[in-house]
Design a protein that fits this description.
Layout: H1 8-15, H2 19-32, H3 49-61, H4 67-74, H5 80-89, E1 93-95, E2 98-100, H6 105-117, H7 123-126, E3 148-150, E4 161-163
Parallel strand pairs: 2-4
Antiparallel strand pairs: 1-3
Helix pairs in contact: 1-2
Protein name: Transposable element Tc1 transposase
Domain Transposase Tc1-like: 52-117
Organism: Trichonephila clavipes (Golden silk orbweaver)
Length: 171
């Protein structure tokens, strides 16, 4: 491309590299007539491609799998950032799971009865109520440490949807 008269900027845009990288390659080519990557440049890989695929597959099969579990299954001593990098390359992100209260048929029936009992209320009756959808009640241990691996836009899919159950009856 450079021998055809293209600018460094245009070549960089075409091959998705920085102008500096294209300039350095061109200098090396004009000086030595060839371009080879330097041996030993870059970090050595700790995992094989098969192990990389296994890491991603485990996160897809079980979104709640932890990095330490993956490390034990793969059998390679690598740092947690390596797992995160492999999963990020596969477009998987570590997110908090979407939590929802389960609505059983009994819950639905009770909600319907509540609404029907108040269907004839006027404005003054409704002014006595306070509605809030931002309340958070923690009964027991808070388990916000649980994270899931999921693709973008996969918030409410069943593997990453956890139903919250209350262990203590509210009075």
């Amino acid at each position: 491309m450079k021998t055809a008269g293209w600018s460094t900027y245009r070549v960089a845009g075409q091959v998705y590299r920085s102008e500096c990288a294209v300039r350095n390659c061109w200098k090396h080519w004009t000086r030595e007539g060839t371009y080879k990557r330097k041996t030993g440049s870059g970090a050595t890989r700790k995992t094989t491609r098969g192990e990389d695929r296994r890491i991603v597959r485990q996160a897809l099969v079980d979104p709640t799998v932890t990095r330490s579990t993956i490390r034990a299954d793969v059998g390679v001593a690598i740092v947690p950032q390596t797992f995160s990098r492999h999963l990020t390359e596969a477009n998987l992100k570590s997110k908090l799971p979407f939590r929802a209260f389960p609505l059983t048929p009994e819950h639905r029936q009770l909600r319907l009865q509540w609404c029907q009992a108040r269907s004839m209320w006027n404005v003054t009756d409704w002014q006595k109520f306070l509605f809030s959808d931002k309340s958070r009640f923690v009964l027991g241990r808070d388990n916000n440490l649980l994270r899931v691996w999921r693709l973008p836009g996969e918030r409410c899919n069943s593997p990453t949807l956890f139903y919250v159950t209350l262990l203590v009856q509210l009075v």
